Amino acid sequence: MACKLVGFSFLLFSCLILAISASPSLADNVTVTVRAITAIQETDGNLVCATIDWWPKEKCDYGWCPWYNSSIINLDLTNPILYNAVKAFKTLRIRLGGSLQDQVIYGVGKYRKGCEDFKKDPNGLFTFSSGCLTMSRWDEINAFFSKTGAILTFGLNALNGRERAINSTEYVGPWDATNARHFIKHTVSKGYKIESWEFGNELCGEGVSAKVNATRYAMDLIKLKKIIHRMYRGFNAQDRPKLLTPGGFFNMPWFAEMLQVSGPNVVNVVTHHIYNLGPGNDNRLINRILDPFYLSQVAKMYKAVQYVVRNFGPWSTPWIGESGGAYNSGGKGVSDSFVDSFWYLDQLAMVSVYGHSVFCRQALIGGNYGLLDPTTFVPNPDYYRQCTSLEPIDGKASP
Ligand SMILES: *[C@@H]1O[C@H](CO)[C@@H](O)[C@H](O)[C@H]1NC(C)=O
Ligand SMILES: *[C@@H]1O[C@H](CO)[C@@H](O)[C@H](O)[C@H]1NC(C)=O
Ligand SMILES: *[C@@H]1O[C@H](CO)[C@@H](O)[C@H](O)[C@H]1NC(C)=O
Ligand SMILES: *[C@@H]1O[C@H](CO)[C@@H](O)[C@H](O)[C@H]1NC(C)=O
């Protein structure tokens, strides 16, 4: 069945209900017509967004290692299914980022030589060493996404130059912007179009592996904003990349302080992450996905984010910067199967109702929650549940 994605969550929601109730048998083709009466919210024209992560194949959870070659660094960008899967959206939003983002070095300037991938390191954050993005890989990434029409968000390393406080997960001291500045400068000089730069991953509030205080963070955001202005001098205001932050779990006082201290028009988009189903190995995942009362609990958080943005940063818009349902790479046999759609469609509609204009699904590929299978690239059911008129994707029509 096919139903067009329109900018109204009312329609999204109707699509979900009808899609479920209008399937007489598996073999039939069903045409669903939605007649909208009223719109309750408008979303970004690109509500649907997917992430690509840095996780290497050595990333394992619960004895499974479901990432294979789906890292930003080694994803096979010549795969025709991947090409068609992104291209089918015409303008799919892609967010490049994830846990290891704050350990990424950009292979420019003095890092041009000896630019190496992540390695297992028991003393590193998330048990990995820092990793380096070569500029030749950056060329390939930009060529691929420009060809497929994607709209890119790139998450910058926000820990550079900070030191870990003794006996704490807090990182202190100012952000060292040098490597990021060189990288942005290189990107501009190549003419690569980045729609938005995101600052940091899961460093807000209590953090996940590391945290940074909100005032310190806000001061560094002002610094990054100035860099973006300088690097994109001569661009029209609407062509200058947006600044997104903090890309982490919502914490009301931290978010409010960050917005107040950074001040008007520094942060354009407030990104936060949602993993409301629990860990990937939780045996209650399916029950939760099929329980409307459970799924609706997270509305409280969407409402709270909307409140903080309206009151402390009315110049910005909230987005879900990353959400895969179940954390630690998703639930095997759950996040990659039909049942997950009940969670996914519900979230797309719910965030729209609470004024979020973008929802980035973790992940386009990789983990158990990928829209595409990480070894065959064949779409999982959720790929088709995005309420767009997508034809089945195959590897035939190559670029
Ligand atoms: C459903 O539609 C597809 C594509 O138009 C067609 O190939 C297929 O035969 C149809 N199936 C049925 C049961 O009508
Ligand atoms: C991942 O990439 C390596 C190196 O290119 C290759 O040898 C391996 O077969 C790939 N693995 C999968 C699952 O595609
Ligand atoms: C850090 O923790 C260790 C082990 O708990 C303790 O022995 C040490 O005194 C602590 N150092 C400081 C500065 O708090
Ligand atoms: C946060 O960082 C700022 C700037 O470095 C510092 O002045 C302030 O005391 C810190 N706040 C807390 C609660 O640690």
Structure in words:
This protein is an alpha/beta fold. 30% of the residues lie in helices and 15% in strands. The protein is built from 11 helices and 14 strands. The strands form 4 sheets. The protein has an 8-stranded parallel barrel. Strand 8 (196-199), helix 5 and strand 9 (242-248) form a beta-alpha-beta unit. The radius of gyration is 20 Å and the shape is globular. Residues 1-23 have low confidence and may be disordered. One 2-acetamido-2-deoxy-beta-D-glucopyranose binds at residues 27-29. One 2-acetamido-2-deoxy-beta-D-glucopyranose is lined by residues 68-69, 375. Keywords: Glycoprotein, Hydrolase, Lysosome, Membrane, Secreted, Signal. Pfam families: Glyco_hydro_79n. Endoglycosidase which is a cell surface and extracellular matrix-degrading enzyme. Cleaves heparan sulfate proteoglycans (HSPGs) into heparan sulfate side chains and core proteoglycans. Belongs to the glycosyl hydrolase 79 family.
Number of alpha- plus pi-helical segments? 11
* Oligomer status: single chain
Number of β-strand runs: 14
SSE topology string? HEHEEEHEEEHEHEHEEHHHEEHEH
Question: What structural class do helix, strand and pairing data support?
Answer: alpha/beta
**Poorly predicted sequence stretches spanning 5 or more consecutive residues:** 1-23
Record the SSE blueprint.
Elements: H1 9-21, E1 48-52, H2 80-87, E2 93-96, E3 104-107, E4 131-134, H3 135-148, E5 151-156, E6 163-164, E7 171-172, H4 178-189, E8 196-199, H5 214-231, E9 242-248, H6 252-262, E10 269-274, E11 278-279, H7 285-289, H8 292-296, H9 299-312, E12 317-323, E13 326-327, H10 340-353, E14 359-361, H11 381-384
Parallel strand pairs: 1-2, 1-14, 2-5, 3-4, 5-8, 8-9, 9-10, 10-12, 11-13, 12-14
Antiparallel strand pairs: 6-7
The structure holds 2-acetamido-2-deoxy-beta-D-glucopyranose (NAG) (4 copies).
Membrane topology: Peripheral membrane protein
GO molecular function: beta-glucuronidase activity
Signal peptide: 1-27
